[in-house]
Write a structure and sequence with these properties.
alpha+beta; Nuclear Transport Factor 2, Chain: A; six-stranded antiparallel beta sheet; 5 helices; globular
């Protein structure tokens, strides 16, 4: 807990590293995420929404992005997303190198169309940024994700998520 507080205070004091020049202004706080997540009415929508959120982030939004992913997940996938949202190492690394990712879901294919658990194959087209700049040589990088969704009384949620390519 102490490490998390130190990491968040360090980030806030630097204002995302942009203001690390010794200002006397009040340090900004971590932005509150509007809850946009939640479980979905269909397996395909669960996969599409999770993939869209997973593939679009900046160094400033990565922790709140993991919080939103947790609201779209169930079981182990939910616990992993919550742990990612609380990981100061993730925040420090993404801010240090000013990393970002933007992506577009190309397809969601249901591999097993029956029952309360389904397997999905998801294709995402991504671009990556380092030092705040998107590099054209990484445009149209395709990622293939193997995912599982599980139906709960409140809807479908991601229960497993594994990029394979």
């Amino acid at each position: 807990m102490k490490k998390l507080i130190v990491g968040v205070v360090s980030l806030a004091a630097c204002g995302g590293l942009a203001a690390c020049g010794g200002t006397t202004e009040e340090p900004p706080t971590r932005p509150k995420a509007a809850p946009r997540g939640g479980l979905s009415p269909t397996p395909q929508e669960a996969g599409r929404r999770f993939a869209a959120e997973w593939s679009n982030w900046t160094s400033e939004t990565i922790l709140t992005q993991n919080e939103r992913l947790a609201t779209m997940a169930v079981g182990r996938a939910r616990r992993e997303a919550i742990a990612g949202a609380r990981d100061p190492k993730t925040m420090r690394a993404s801010i240090r190198y000013d990393l970002a990712n933007r992506g577009r879901v190309e397809s969601v294919h249901v591999k097993e169309p029956r029952g309360r658990k389904r397997k999905l194959l998801i294709v995402v087209r991504q671009s990556y940024a380092k030092d705040g700049r998107f590099d054209r040589k990484f445009d149209d990088d395709f990622r293939v994700i193997s995912a599982e969704v599980k139906q709960t009384p409140k809807g479908w949620g991601i229960s497993a998520w594994k990029p394979v390519l």
